[in-house]
Amino acid sequence: MSVTGLCQICENAPARHACRYCGRQVCRDHWNETVGACTPCAEASGVGDGGGGRGGRSDDDTDGGDDGFRID
Q1: Minimal CB count within 10 Å: which of 6, 26, 55, 58?
Q2: What gap in Å lies between CA 53 and CA 67, rounded to an integer?
Q3: The pairing of beta strand 17-18 with beta strand 37-38
């Protein structure tokens, strides 16, 4: 997909990426490379903080804490 125009989040910077989830065309500041999605979709995915950092749970997380699943 060709990416042209302005970021659909900040409407200021040139769009450089297209989100694979919602289709938004976003600038570098609103792109999360780890997830391959715009920052709002990256935040919603639960991986990282949406800001492009590693974030999220690591594979070696063995603290035995709540993993987000619930069995009734």
Answers
A1: 58
A2: 20
A3: unpaired
